[in-house]
Every structure is written in structure tokens, then in C-alpha cells.
Amino acid sequence: MPLIEAKIQERRRHQRVKVVLPGRYMLEDRREYPCQTIDISPGGVAFAGAAKGGVGERVVAYLNQIGRVEGTVSRHFEEGFAIQMKLPVIKREKLADQLTWLANRQALGMAEDRRHERIPPRFSHTTLKLPNGQEFLARLVDVSISGAALAVAAKPPIGSAVVIGETAAQVVRHFEGGIALEFNRLFPIETFSENITL
Question: What CATH number has the domain bearing residue 75?
Fold first, then answer.
């Protein structure tokens, strides 16, 4: 191992886990780019991505299975760049647990559960509008940038084009007491949080 690389590793306070996750990231110019993680720790992420940003520049990323992460560019390397994150203790511990689970799952060759992390929204009351114009009161169980689970009395056929609140979507599956939807368009990273309204 080259001496410089050894010194970089000595400086790291958190162990990096080689977990490959696709995602998207946004630089300060608010442009979004696709990316893939190379390795992650509770203190930072190494990304393979085309636009590297300047050292010290703020980066917001949305990673499959983990969700939103943000930090500042700490260094560049050939395939991409690394960011440093300063997380509160509770979030850091949660991320460490997620990384352990993801690393074990990838090592065992288990399939990915979902394309995007789902979170419970703060504002859960909404309406579901069917293709025939019929509307139903509904409750959002959870939501991601690509879809939502909805507790609702209606059971429109899988593949039906529906509108949840103001958001166009299609029905992808049924479950006991509700349906799962996929949005026609992904929500942008910067607008997605527990305060999202559809």
C-alpha cells in the first residue's frame, strides 16, 4: 500500500464498507447527476460520478436503500470523489447499522428489497383519483422518491393510471387494506423529505 494511502486510512475515524449502491447527487449549481457508491462509512462516502465538484463544495445525494445523505467534497480521485459527513450520533449509529446489513446482504447475494428508501410522511391524508374520475379518501403509509404505499378502500387494477393528491402514478401492487403506487416521475432530491405533499 502506498504511504499516502496508508496515511489517509489512518486519518479515517470510521471504517469504510464496500457497498455498491446506485443513486443521484446534486452539486451547489443544483444540477443532478447519476452516481454509484464505491464505499461508505458513517463519516463519508466515496462516489463514482462524472461531475466531481470543488473541494469543500456541498453535495446532497439520494442513495438507494439509504436515502438522503449530504456532506462536503473532501477529495477527488480518478473515478469520482469523496464527501465528508458530520452526522449526529443517533443518525451515525443508524447508518452504521444500515451499512452492516447492506454489506452482509451483498456478501450473501441477497436481492435488493426496494429501489428507494421509504419514509413515513408527516402529512398522511390525501385523495386517490381513479381513471373514471371517482375519488377516495386515503392515507399515505410511506413514500419514496419513486412511489408510495396507500391505505385506501379502492382496489383499482394493477397498471391503472391514478392521481394521488396532485401526483400522477400507476398501481403496481395490492396489499391487505391498500395499494402500492409508482409515480410517473421521480421526486427531485432537494424536495423529498418527511414534509412532502403529493
Answer: 2.40.10.220
Concatenate the DSSP letters of all residues of 73-118 into one string: EEEEETTEEEEE----HHHHHHHHHHHHHHHHHHHHTPPPS-SS--
pTM: 0.51
Q: How many CB atoms lie within 10 A of CB 52?
A: 19
Torsion (CA) 26, 30, 34, 37 in degrees, nearest 10: -10
**Domain extent at residue 184:** 125-191
Q: Which residue in 4, 86, 103, 1 sits closest to 44, CA to CA?
A: 86
Q: Are residues 98 and 19 in the same domain?
A: yes
Compute the average pLDDT of residues 15-33: 86
Residue 115 has pLDDT above 60, yes or no: no
- Give the three cell numbers for residue 96: 452504521
